[in-house]
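Hi L.,

You mentioned the student needs an example of a multi-chain input paired with its predicted structure. This one should do, with 240 residues in total across all chains.
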Amino acid sequence: MLPTVNRKVQDSCACYVVRMATKPVNLSLPEELAAELRAKAAHGEIRSVSSYVADVLTERFQREADDEQRRANVEAYVAEYLTPPDGDSNAWASDVLDAIDVLGRDR
Amino acid sequence: MKGLVFDSSVVAHIARSRKISSLIVQCARGAMNVCVPALVLTEAAATAATKEATFHLYRLCQEIPAERMFVAPIGDNAIPFAAFRSEHALVLEGDAHAAYEAATMFWGIVSADQACIDRYRQIGLYVFDARDQ
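Structure written out for the whole complex:
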């Protein structure tokens, strides 16, 4: 389940506390970005710094949840239609990953 | 960005190779990217024995997040691809496309066919043998 973001955040400095349904998230925005967002809020481009941050976080949680669901779908698909991996094949894939890591650095 | 290219024999072995399944799962988890050359797909889709496997592979390309497993088109690379294919005397279009993508992106190539593995090594590609022992 996605955490819901409570938009009540402290707007007065670069430190923001976004209260989530499950737990509060302490968030420090870089001073420059915070100033930029405050200017945008002053010009009416965004509603407020806090609502902007809350929207960005909500989008990010949604994207992460979608990705997680799709990863799970892939693993279920592999198990159903292909041959599920085992310890040996996972160890082999891990060696392949190490090898292409080196390959990338060599070039 | 690191990644691997699948050749035509991977499609033929996809339903029964645990190694290929491990690579697909790793790709879905974000450990690396996988390139499926368009000509590998067209060739496999046109062959009765690999038609079903082609759909599995294509479906996985759609499902894996952030396009980490993708179909690589020939597009604007048609002429350099033709030159590469002719230079290395690669007969089969799908495998030629796979070798071309691996060579130009400096990625590893995955194969389950001994003749292809030997040929890719001669070209200087970094080859991974996907056959289960």
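You could point out the following to them. Chain A has three helices and three strands. The beta strands of chain A are 5-6, 15-20, 24-28.

Best wishes,
N.
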